[in-house]
Amino acid sequence: MRKLLLLALLLLSPFAIRLSPLYAAKADKQVVVLSCDLHCQGCCDKIMKNIAFEKGVKDIVCDLKTKTVTVTYDANKTDVPTLLKAFEKIGKPAKVKEPAQKEASAPTTETDADTGASQVQ
After folding, report:
1. Is the residue at 52 inside a domain?
2. Which residues are within 8 A (CB) of 77 and not within 5 positions of it... i.e. 6 or more apart?
3. Which of 22, 37, 71, 101 is buried most deeply by CB count within 10 Å?
4. In the Cβ-directed half-sphere of 101, how many Cα atoms lie within 13 Å?
């Protein structure tokens, strides 16, 4: 009986391996960069200890130099407003950091209607 059970298990295992990705929950990973008032390594440690246990949080990276916290999270389980509330709860209010804007715009070109020549301004 044992041999029959083992044989059946060995025969069915390749099918189970192929079907397992179908049943796996797809994680919708998102990344948000938050600006936070970080003074020292203790601030980073506090964030790492507390925010890591929030539902859906996959990874946290604190950058003391730029005073930013990068959080990778599962969008199916949490969202940015929930993360911001978690930061407020531990006494480290944060806000979403806007992407850096280009300060110098690209030079514009004008085309002379008579000659067809273009000039860079």
Report:
1. yes
2. 55, 56
3. 71
4. 3
**For residues 61 and 70, is the Cβ–Cβ distance under 8 A?**
yes
> Is the whole model's pTM more than 0.85, yes or no?
no
* β-pairing verdict for 29-36 and 94-96: antiparallel
Q: Are 87 and 47 in contact (CB under 8 A)?
A: yes
> Rounded distance, CA 95 to CA 80, Å?
10
Rounded Cα distance between 56 and 52, Å, is 9
Task: Give the DSSP per-residue string, 34-57.
Answer: EEE---SHHHHHHHHHHHTTSTTE
pLDDT in tens, 76-102: 999 999 999 999 999 999 999 876 544
Count the domains in the chain: 1
Give a yes or no: residue 11 inside a domain: no
Specify if 86 maps to a domain.
Answer: yes
CATH number at residue 59: 3.30.70.100
Strand partners, 36: 94
Q: Would 63 be classed as within a structural domain?
A: yes
